[in-house]
Amino acid sequence: MTHPVKPLDLQAVRRAARQHIENGAVTAGYSADRPAVLKMLNESLATELVCVLRYRRHHFMARGIHSQAVAAEFLAHANEELAHADLLATRIVQLGGEPDFSPDTLLSRSHAEYVEGHNLADMIRENLIAERIAIDSYRHGIASLGEQDTTTRIMLESILAMEEEHADDLADLLQNLPPLPAIDPRPAHQSPPKLPPPSKKHHKEKS
Ligand SMILES: [Fe+2]
Ligand SMILES: [Fe+2]
Fold first, then answer.
1. pLDDT mean across residues, the chain
2. How wide is the angle at C-alpha 172 spanned by C-alphas 170 and 175, nearest 5°?
3. pLDDT, tens digit, for every residue of 121-138?
């Protein structure tokens, strides 16, 4: 069954476009709840920024013989999360809002957590959990937007597809990782404590 296409009332569209031109891309035809969309986008922005920080920390702290490929993956994900943050911030401005980059409230506004992790397996697991949180948050956002703001929805769908790839990459890494010892939590400039020199005393041999 074909869907009838309603003819465009061009005069009405032209009239409406001349009103409130300060709203830029937000026209009279925008039917979504703009404050709610901006709030959702700012929460996603905070989530992406926390993910950037966590992935970068993990990139620099990954140690051990299996760490090289994992550290490179963490950096790649960090950069992709930053690109998502930029997309979200751009859309927030297009919708007449302000992207919230305040570090004071970043963590409380983020859906994902910032967990440092004690070893490579911990780090991969924490990132996988964060990705799974992001996936469900984006799914919820996409479903609640429906047809009311297709530009935002399509953007969120493209981000969601990448979060699913990230989660898949991490699940693979976790599966292929042998058990590893905990990393040294001390900063790199701190040398390990010196052990006493081995005793030079000779034990008397038993006769
Ligand atoms: Fe992301
Ligand atoms: Fe991700």
1. 88
2. 110
3. 999 999 999 999 999 999
Instruction: Give the distance (Å) from ligand 1 centre to CA of residue 204.
Output: 68
The count of domains in the chain is 1
Indicate if the pLDDT at residue 204 is higher than 50.
no
Range of the domain at 136: 31-175
Distance 98 CA to ligand 2 centre (A): 23
- For the purposes of burial, counting CB atoms within 10 Å of the CB of 77, is it exposed (0-12), middle (13-18) or buried (19 or more)? buried
Give the Å distance between the CA of 117 and the centre of ligand 1. 20
CATH number of the domain residue 141 falls in: 1.20.1260.10
Residue 64 domain flag: yes
Q: Who contacts 20 (Cβ-Cβ below 8 Å, separation ≥6)?
A: 28
Residue 7 placed within a domain: no
163 C-alpha to ligand 2 centroid (Å): 4
Residue 2 has a pLDDT of 73
* Number of alpha carbons in the 13 Å side-chain half-sphere of residue 109: 18
pTM of the model: 0.81
Over residues 22-64, the pLDDT tens digits come to: 888 888 888 899 999 999 999 999 999 999 999 999 999 998 8
One-letter identity of residue 37: V
CA of 34 relative to ligand 1 center, distance in Å: 22
- What is the C-alpha to C-alpha distance for residues 170 and 129, in angstroms, rounded to an integer? 10
At 65, is the secondary structure helix, strand, or coil?
Answer: coil
